[in-house]
Records
---
Amino acid sequence: MKVDEAELILQLRAKGISPSPQRLAVYGFLKANPIHPTADVIMKELKPLLPTLSLTTVYNTLKLFVSKDLVHEVIIEDGELRFDADLCDHAHFKCTGCDKVFDLFPQKGKPVMEKLPELPQGFTVTGVHVCLRGKCSECGN
Amino acid sequence: MKVDEAELILQLRAKGISPSPQRLAVYGFLKANPIHPTADVIMKELKPLLPTLSLTTVYNTLKLFVSKDLVHEVIIEDGELRFDADLCDHAHFKCTGCDKVFDLFPQKGKPVMEKLPELPQGFTVTGVHVCLRGKCSECGN
DNA sequence: TCCTTGAATTGAAATAACTACAATTATAAA
DNA sequence: TTTATAATTGTAGTTATTTCAATTCAAGGA
């Protein structure tokens, strides 16, 4: 996916985030690579482009993005927090063979969960995480 | 929930796990306290009862239980692996106010997800994780 | 242009969850 | 009782993430 920098700047501004080079790089990477990368992966990929980039900045930036609702945290496995710039309602599929994480988009207009489980009185929902596990077509079964 | 020790021993044996005092204590705690505890919580709770218990044993034991499909791992937040001795298909609800994790059971006989998202050709599913986030009745909204 | 101020970035050190490993202890079979 | 195997333990890692103080950057006013 090719991403226009001017467009990225507008999207950051729209969420009240001033667009520093580091922030643009992280957001641009997430937009261009819907692979749900960890902070570590982002760091490794961007380091050649921004040699001064520090891991702390990557963490700071991601935390800022999450707090401003520009990207979502994706929790697939313990011990690795992943990030997703696609804010549409969708589920994830983790292949237990190759460890890749795939997006599963519902049919247009439908939510990922047709019907939410019944909630106790007084409970309110703000988010739904759905992650399937199994084998992708490459890894067979 | 009161749990009979003889019953626990049978359940361990049924999965090919020899019932040491430590294993019985961990499994009994999980059965009696459906609070999806972390290894750390289990350790803190059991230490007074088994003063020699080590954290390594708790981790070993939980990993063994998971590999023998006696308990399930529950992934709610990053950085903390939780465990659940209830093997029925059910969803979880994490209150972002008090951080408690609640069970959400579907109607009898129904799966948690009525309809799975459409999968690409050749993909096979072995497990479904569903976790809602929001506020419980105590924490209001 | 220079100065000031606050925001953003950085690196080093700390923390937390978890794992590896070698030594000890318990269990069970011969 | 001896022996072999399994389970437990403590210590010392490892890895992901956070804290924090110092530095750098960028914008606005004198």
---
Amino acid sequence: MEQITIKDVAKACGVGVSTVSRAINDHPNINEETKELVLKKIKELGYVPNNSARNLKRSEGKAIAVLVKGMTNPFFNVMIKIMEEDIISRGYTMVLQHVDPSEDEADVALELTKEKRLCGIIFLGGIVTRRGSKLGLLNVPYVVSTIGAPLKGVHEEDYSSVAVDDEREGEKATRYLLNKGYKRIAIFAGAKDDTSVGMLRLAGYRKALEEAGIPVDEDLIMYLPKDNEEYSYYTGYSSAKRLIEEGTVFDAVFAIADVMAVGACRAFLETGRKIPKDVAVMGFDGIDLTRFYLPSITTVAQPIKQMAIETSRLLFEVIDGKEHRHLVFDAEIVERETT
Amino acid sequence: MEQITIKDVAKACGVGVSTVSRAINDHPNINEETKELVLKKIKELGYVPNNSARNLKRSEGKAIAVLVKGMTNPFFNVMIKIMEEDIISRGYTMVLQHVDPSEDEADVALELTKEKRLCGIIFLGGIVTRRGSKLGLLNVPYVVSTIGAPLKGVHEEDYSSVAVDDEREGEKATRYLLNKGYKRIAIFAGAKDDTSVGMLRLAGYRKALEEAGIPVDEDLIMYLPKDNEEYSYYTGYSSAKRLIEEGTVFDAVFAIADVMAVGACRAFLETGRKIPKDVAVMGFDGIDLTRFYLPSITTVAQPIKQMAIETSRLLFEVIDGKEHRHLVFDAEIVERETT
DNA sequence: ATAATTATTGGTAACGTTTCCAATAATTTA
DNA sequence: TAAATTATTGGAAACGTTACCAATAATTAT
């Protein structure tokens, strides 16, 4: 199957290659009639521009890379799907790449831009490289989504972001539990030395307790172990198990990700605890499953779809020459059966 | 940030561009010493080959497209992640693209190959185009994963596949329920005129009943509505609701996807039914959630990871010039609390 | 009617690779 | 020692685009 090139089209139309090129690219300097003719012929011949050649010439690929840390989380799936739709509909390709929790996403991104000629990057989750990272070396626009704190070592005008105010939402969640009358609230946070959302939500937790005049019991804070930092059913489950084993008294759990909340529920119910009578459980994210799990799980629901839409929109804004922006969304506490 | 080209490297080394090219591509006709020198300089200068140029010349991009139908299903997520690892580790790019249930994936694929110069395609789920499809026009190797029946209108030697024997597994599942003593087994199948896994599993269901001498009650077969054919919590939930409303007597449900089983459980528990006392629930796929859901869900567990590994392996085999193959895996019934 | 502008056009040089081909240097064989 | 082979090399032509430039045709202004 031979490829049909712009030359074939030109020959078929009896015009020059540049005319065909102009027709394809909506160039102003072309007669409407010739353009129509060319476009018709193109359809007839089934011609599709060769992207490699185009990218080579334009020295810019029509591709957006999406780097995800923690792909297991269904939260990201929904986002990816929505962003993909937008990316494709604008004629771009989405290159998806996971990055291991132990990897530096700035390194991965840097490598990628060199070989791939991307015209934008979306970071989903993670960004452990916050402290003075190599992100500044990136010469393509990027937006970080679901990260939380502003990136250190990078100017605010040099990237876009969309997120909820994780600290405030963590505080809100904790206060909600406090208002419900829970006194010994455990929190399932992220990895200890991490800088991502988990730690921010934890900070909010501390703040809420402090404001309520309740001293923070460090035994109630369950960090994720170094060897498995991913938010998953499993880490939620084992955190709960660990909490039980350690014998710490608790009457509620705030898991900083829904998937962990699910795992926690399983552990509690398995060990004969009633939810929410013996222990309340609260999640964070607002994935579908919290609605369908039984008991349905109270959660801090992020406006996932909207955030996804804005994430890609923000990126394309910058590609189109506009300024970088930082969007902060409000999350909403959805009360369900676990509290 | 100017791009460093092969010319710069050549100049820096005092050699010709072709020598540099040879060094990069492990060409045999090059002196070991010069090669080392070049490689050292390359690292020094931070040179990375330009993919577009390379693809243009080789007229083959080092990219694998993964087309997924039904991205919401976590089953595919796990597969995607595993395949991606393999794809990246071999130096290829993974281009992920969802295809809407209403779209023809062969069309999408065809379009993609023309503009992207892919060197392989992986189809995940779907392939409604089974009847005499345009798949034959594809001039890149492809493998269909999780599809089930052999593709019609395409020679077996022209593509690879990995799957379980969906009909047999459906039969196995149904027989398992029958052996457990359930008599009125409802099945949540796919869309009625679909040709994908759902219908095969349904065929197995029919076969099992027939063999047991039980006439099939068509009222027990819940097809997915035309406007929402995706396997999801929601479609499982609403199928269950519909079944209840219709007043059909049933004592077990076989959902052809775990996510649907989860939704069904929710609906049954919500309406005061006990699982498995009033109704047994059985899923298919073997996603993590079935373990962590409460009650944990009996399922026909596919060897997801292995299937994912083999899927990309099969593709690269063909890329490396080997023959196409068809792999059939065995699924395993994992008995849990819902039966 | 002529000059000046404007609207279209085709030709061609890049873009950064790979790969064939011929050229040279190094080695082996006769 | 000359001839034949082999191991390395550099040069240059592609790959399919885009975009600049000059050329032509059509229009307007003088």
